[in-house]
Amino acid sequence: MGSHSVFFVEIEQVRTRAGGQSLVHFDRAFHRLDAMPLVPEGAQS
Q: DSSP of 29-40, one letter per residue?
């Protein structure tokens, strides 16, 4: 039995809140996510 779980996913949406910075763990390190303009649902990127 392992001590960790690994998920391979495609991110569809990220929500943030004012007053805090978001972090993501990738490639064995934490990285800050900068705020970006909102894209309306259904809009193609």
A: EEEEEPP-----
